[in-house]
Amino acid sequence: MLTAHERAEGGALDSKSDRRATFDVAAIRADFPALDQEVHGKPLVYLDSAASAQKPRAVIAAMDSLYLHDYANVHRGVHELSQRATRRYEGARDRVRDFIGAGDSREIVFVRGTTEAVNLVAQSFVRPRLQPGDEILITGLEHHSNIVPWQLVAEATGAKLVVVAIDEHGAVSADEFAAKITERTRFASFAHISNSLGTVLPIEAMIAHAKKAGVSVMIDGAQAVPHRHVDVRALDVDFYAFSSHKMYGPSGIGALYGKASHLEAMPPYQGGGEMITKVSFEETVYNDIPHKFEAGTPNIGGAIGLGAAIDYLNGIDFDQLAAHEESLLAAATTQLVDLGGITVVGTAPEKAAVVGFVIDGVHPHDVGTILDREGVAVRAGHHCAQPVMDHFKVPATVRASFGCYNTMDDVVRLVAAVEVCREVFR
Ligand code: C6P
What we know:
The protein is of the alpha/beta class. 40% of the residues lie in helices and 16% in strands. Bound molecules: ligand C6P.
């Protein structure tokens, strides 16, 4: 028998038609309790969603209900609670499948986040295919999570990392990407959207170039899935990864999409319970995909929270969301530049949801601290993209990033706080 929460979740799965007809930012804000507070005596303006987004009540409630009513380990128990938890956990996997347009739930592996997904693919798919002198292709705007795992496999195998340079705006050219593909290129991995610059990469053209050369591709979608509709089958991408916490779900969980044929051919990444069908001291038979890659007790509550975050996002029209975030980005960029003495870092023609900037003569960490005193939460630092900072010859930037709940008032407060900051350092 289905519990009330399972019925609610089942309903959500079937009701894409529930999409909100209009983009009502006030209604969206009301769904996020954390936004309704003061910080240092000022109403909070949360502009750090690229680092981690706030959570709507529906996500918190889904996780609460698991722990209040349905919690037990998954895939193991014959008892009722284990069966409920298993149904909800696997229901979350089905939601991820539908959310990114995958054809089969077996192609969705739950992981800790994007970082773990890249490491899994690097170690299990790419490393066994590498010979000394082989090449792995990335771009100059990658997050450290999409650099270091490739350096690790390159070091272990004698392969090398080839980097497609970004231009002075922080854009990546699909033609330059194509020009870097050689007969030694074995794999390409790149972001869908840059976390430090907001650049939207021309991933369709890049994937097409790679496919033409027979090169498999992984996309780091961490910054894309909260803002863009993604269809992995239309992209014909081999692997696509993202983290739940940037898309209004809990932290510590994310998903790796991999084509079933790849996942089936790959060796397990970690050994333990759950990923086996039979173990003896002589031999172990691995479980089917995706369980082969989910060793140990998984993040059950996290997966269910991620499923609820997807239900929440399915209630938002992504075209309207993108238009809303674009207008915030355009207003913030123009108004910051108009202040004078401010350089926006990352001015690619295709940008999303992120404005990175530096103020002449003021260290970004000082800006971040003063903005915080004004109630405005931004990230200041290298954003785990040090090569990007080196490219633009800055130690760090201030980054304001937008989510579905941000408003033009937030932009006004950001710009006013930056003015306060300039006064302090004048
Ligand atoms: N970026 C930011 O402030 P994890 O930590 O595994 O959930 O995600 C890593 C990651 C990978 N790729 C991109 C493009 C990312 O933006 C991130 C996380 C955060 O920009 C924290 S450093």
